[in-house]
């Protein structure tokens, strides 16, 4: 006699409940960016307004994002079709979705059912209000994050559903609004720290959510929609902004003075020709878009070099490229200076990865928070100036937004070097040459540059017994720092720093100095007292680097042009007190107190987290002269 039975029937119910909790915990931890808190509900909202538009073309989509830093709540409201209460009861369980068929047809951005799980169980307050043609209700889930973190199985999530009358709630027409509150157990914990201003929030929404629609080549194009940000700061002051429903590429939204060229369009219009003189060396950045056919051509023979397990030849690579309609965008800019321009004009703190050179992935017209620093895989050219974005159709991360399927990771590995090399080579004739610090070289006529500089006289005068500084204008670049340092040496003020050599750009380091404590002027030692007893033969000699700002040393360390262990002194104009991050390296600059340090005249100290306890002594000439100029 043959009998069938359920092999899981005898499973311990607590074990099953524990497995569900572990699954939910894994989903939550797979989201690793504060922007995901907004990206997930926005993705669902855009899908909803798309479907509503397809059913009724008179229904123009509308999405409103609320960020309230005074209550730590975010909300996303759409005017889609609404969600039935029957479906909501199902969708709050992990891995439940009704979008699989839509996703296969290119009509949905998500399909795994993990996004709503992240929102509902990643926070202790989660609320959905929805209105359809036939019902109006509100569902509130409470204590869900406490349940996730509770190992004793004594806390349970609680869901309450209320039917709402027409005049209740915030919805008067069909649609859905999701509200979430962050707190001590959640990530982020504080909305103001994650989104410190309305303009930063605006940039995040256009650069890391489905509101900033990434252009795609698929047959099914998304419907148009209007988007609005309602931002309240910690004091409850409201700012309302209309948002652009197009993705912010790194050349988007810059001031008119920044010259950027679409090198792809230029080459298409001027094939096999050298750029004329009027276009050579005139641009701060150059970008281009790559279609699937171009990528197939660009990647020929590349799979063998990467030596992956899944994509081993040209045919494998082409199959994935065409299956997912892969396209790409690449931009080459002038290194740190271009990133700073982006940060300024996008109102983003300069250490934010949002504007950092990297490779990123978009799928189904929505950018992901996933990114990878190009300098981890590139050597031999200036990777700090390359931005890449690869777009694919109908591909989802393995879980949440943290990573991609192995085949896609291999495709990215095959893609990034050829894309970076191609844009670097194509852009080179057009870009303004740069100094080693990454700043663009000024091509103004000397007389014009001198006239402009004379408008800004040198900002310090010293007491008469120290002498008069002859440098006429305020410093603006690295060579000014070298000149002022040497003038101060000639005046006897910094004569205790004796040069062994100064170098041009062909040598890795700028100079090598010798410190003589017996030559320190009395007025310098008075203002910069130190204990010379700790000096020895080794610490009296060393490499000195010159920069306009102290933080400009960090890109050289990241690109391995300079070795932190070799540098003893950093001479600059501005100290940049604080923490600076780039390419996985973190540098701290702090001001020295009287009596600290080893060298009289050093104003600050810089440390590198990967450099251990070793610090570099900083002579910030602006601070140095301020102290010398101070009365008394």
Primary descriptors:
8-stranded mixed β-sheet; alpha+beta; 19 helices; globular; 22 strands; 632 residues
Total number of helices: 19
Structural classification: alpha+beta
Q: What is the overall pLDDT average?
A: 83
Largest sheet descriptor: 8 strands, mixed
CA-based gyration radius: 29 Å
What's the overall geometry? globular
Which residues sit in consecutive blocks of at least 5 with pLDDT less than 50?
99-104, 376-381
End-to-end separation in angstroms reads 106 Å
Oligomer: single chain
What helical percentage do the residues reach?
25-40%
The total beta strand count reads 22
Give the strand order, joined by hyphens, for the main sheet: 5-4-3-6-2-1-7-8
The fraction of residues assigned to DSSP E strands is 15-25%
């Amino acid at each position: 006699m043959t009998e069938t039975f359920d092999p899981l029937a005898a499973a311990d119910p607590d074990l099953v409940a524990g497995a569900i909790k572990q699954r939910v915990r894994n989903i939550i931890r797979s989201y690793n960016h504060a922007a995901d808190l907004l990206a997930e509900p926005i993705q669902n909202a855009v899908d909803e307004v798309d479907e509503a538009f397809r059913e009724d073309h008179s229904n123009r989509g509308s999405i409103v994002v609320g960020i309230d830093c005074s209550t730590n709540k975010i909300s996303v409201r759409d005017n889609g079709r609404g969600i039935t209460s029957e479906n909501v009861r199902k969708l709050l369980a992990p891995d439940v979705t009704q979008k699989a068929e839509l996703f296969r047809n290119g009509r949905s951005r998500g399909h795994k059912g993990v996004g709503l799980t992240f929102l509902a169980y990643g926070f202790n307050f989660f609320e959905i209000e929805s209105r359809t043609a036939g019902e109006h209700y509100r569902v509130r889930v409470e204590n869900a994050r406490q349940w996730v973190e509770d190992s004793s199985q004594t806390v349970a999530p609680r869901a309450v559903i209320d039917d709402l009358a027409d005049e209740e709630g915030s919805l008067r027409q069909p649609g859905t609004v999701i509200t979430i509150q962050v707190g001590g157990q959640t990530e982020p914990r504080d909305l103001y720290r994650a989104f410190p201003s309305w303009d930063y929030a605006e940039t995040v929404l256009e650069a890391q959510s489905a509101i900033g629609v990434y252009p795609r080549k698929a047959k099914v194009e998304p419907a148009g929609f209007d988007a609005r940000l309602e931002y309240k700061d910690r004091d409850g002051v409201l700012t309302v902004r209309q948002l652009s429903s197009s993705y912010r590429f790194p050349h988007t939204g810059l001031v008119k003075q920044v010259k950027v060229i679409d090198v792809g369009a230029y080459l298409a219009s001027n094939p096999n020709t050298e750029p004329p003189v009027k276009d050579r060396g005139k641009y701060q950045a150059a970008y281009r878009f790559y279609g699937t056919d171009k990528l197939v051509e660009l990647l020929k023979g590349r799979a063998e070099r990467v030596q992956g397990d899944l994509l081993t030849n040209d045919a494998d690579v082409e199959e994935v490229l065409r299956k997912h309609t892969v396209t790409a965008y690449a931009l080459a800019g002038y290194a740190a200076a271009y990133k700073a321009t982006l940060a300024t004009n996008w109102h983003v703190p300069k250490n934010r990865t949002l504007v950092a050179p990297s490779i990123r992935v978009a799928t189904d017209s929505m950018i992901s928070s996933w990114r990878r620093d190009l300098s981890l895989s590139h050597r031999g050219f200036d990777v700090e100036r390359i931005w890449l974005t690869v777009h694919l159709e109908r591909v989802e991360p393995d879980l949440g937004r943290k990573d991609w399927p192995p085949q896609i990771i291999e495709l990215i590995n095959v893609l990034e070097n050829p894309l970076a090399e191609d844009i670097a080579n194509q852009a080179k004739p057009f870009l303004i040459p740069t100094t080693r610090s990454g700043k663009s070289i000024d091509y103004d006529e000397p007389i014009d540059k001198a006239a402009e500089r004379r408008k800004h006289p040198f900002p310090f005068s010293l007491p008469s017994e120290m002498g008069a500084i002859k440098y006429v204008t305020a410093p603006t670049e690295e060579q000014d720092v070298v000149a002022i340092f040497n003038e101060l040496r000639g005046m006897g003020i910094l004569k205790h720093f004796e040069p062994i050599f100064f170098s041009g750009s062909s040598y890795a380091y700028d100079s090598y100095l010798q410190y003589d404590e017996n030559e320190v002027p009395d007025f310098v030692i008075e203002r910069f007292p130190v204990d010379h007893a700790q000096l020895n033969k080794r610490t009296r000699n060393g490499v000195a680097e010159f920069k306009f700002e102290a933080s400009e040393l960090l890109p050289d360390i990241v690109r391995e042009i300079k070795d932190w262990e070799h540098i003893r002194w950093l001479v600059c104009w501005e100290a940049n007190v604080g923490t600076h991050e780039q390419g996985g390296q973190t540098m701290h600059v702090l001001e020295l107190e009287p009596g600290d340090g080893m060298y009289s005249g050093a104003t600050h100290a810089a440390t590198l987290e990967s450099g251990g306890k070793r610090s570099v002594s900083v002579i910030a000439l602006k601070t140095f002269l301020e102290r010398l100029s101070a009365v008394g």
